[in-house]
Amino acid sequence: MSEYQYYEFQAIDRPLTKDELEQVRALSSRATISATHFVNEYHYGDFRGDERRLMEQLYDAHLYFANWGSRRLMLRLPTALLPARNAEPYCAEDALTCWTRNGHLLLDFACSAEDGGEWDFETSFALASFTTLRTELAAGDRRPLYLAWLSALTRWELEEDVDEDEYTSTLEPPVPAGLAHLTGPQQALADFLHIDPHLLTAAARASGAAPSQAIDKDVLAAWIRALSQNEKDTLLLDAALGTAPQPGPALLARHRAASRGTAEPSTGARRRSAAELLDAAHEVRSEQTRQQDQARAQARQAQQLARESHLNHLAENAEQAWQDVANLIGKKQPSPYDTAVTLLKDLREIHDRAGTPGEFARRLHDLREQHRGKSSLMRRLTDAGLTPR
Fold first, then answer.
1. How far apart are the first and last CA of the chain?
2. DSSP state of 114
3. Would strands 61-66 and 96-101 be described as parallel, antiparallel, or unpaired?
């Protein structure tokens, strides 16, 4: 069984220096490496670097997955944009951890391989699907963090040694707005972390509508004009020298926070227990199953009605149908043969319903005798059970 591992790193806020590039190149001779990107695939062996250390020192985003099921996404952004205290309520063992280093908050989203699970040789991911999550988090959107907590609950439910009291005593973190309508990167994260969609639907019931992320340029311009001259000079100097992260996301985050235009959670809302959420997810799953069963029953009923209408119409024009069979056979081609066989099966059902199976058997016998030299047709009739009784 061949192993496969994928490693990808991306520098977003600033490119790597020449010395840093040399440091990274020393870790792999086969990786595709640039000042902003590192990609390598392993079909045997392991990456020699320390992903955590590389993220702390050089990169802003990291993606890892293996075909035995392990998945990992790491994001780094300045603590000025997302303080650790805002992320910590969502941390859960083996699902999301966070720590600070050198003025940055690091988020580690993980999904461990399930024991005894099947290896996945088809699924692949790209870091580009997730990098926009940094911008969303910087703008005050907590949905990616809540999704990580939900992924922990999804896996927790599958464990067999959890005491029921733990589910009752464990409360959810603050619920952000907009869970019912995730962004593209957020949905990619939910899929990446194997979140139960029924659990997500249940959790979204306590989530308000996400506020519009549209920016009023006039309002933003007025807010920027109100910044001190010294602060503007510092932002421009840092941007020109590349000594600080790109100022755009930070300014937008501050502007949205000032105007309360973010998807921040409501701290006053009642927090549900893990048990309540799991029970609600069960209800969602049951209701969805009931609706699917009902839809299938309605589809079967519609098919039956259509079938009855077809047979009734055919019964009214039975002689024409027998003539159509003869015309189709006369074409001496495979496709018309198939159509003729289907029509004969319908005629058999019509004669059975009319109580005249003997007439059908006689006409079928005559038909077979007339065309007994057509081996392809004879084979189709026999395979369809259209043989003399």
1. 55
2. P
3. unpaired
Helices 274-316 and 334-354, interaxial angle, to 10°? 90
DSSP state, residue 374: -
Tokens of 333: 């081609």
Q: Tokens in use for 245? A: 């992260």
What's the DSSP call for residue 281?
A: H
For 61-78, write each residue's pLDDT tens digit: 999 999 888 999 999 999
Separation CA 315–CA 327 (nearest Å): 18
Q: Which positions ≥6 away from 245 have C-beta within 8 Å?
A: 13, 14, 77, 78, 81
206: helix, strand or coil = coil
Q: How many C-beta atoms lie closer than 10 Å to residue 8's C-beta?
A: 22
pLDDT digits (tens, 9 = 90+) for 213-250: 667 788 878 888 888 888 777 778 777 776 566 667 66
Q: Is the dihedral of CA 214, 215, 219, 223 positive or negative?
A: positive
Q: How far is CA 368 from CA 245, 329, 346, 354, 381, in A?
A: 83, 11, 17, 23, 9
Q: What is the DSSP letter of 355?
A: T
Cα distances from 76 to residues 29, 54, 364, in angstroms, run 26, 11, 77
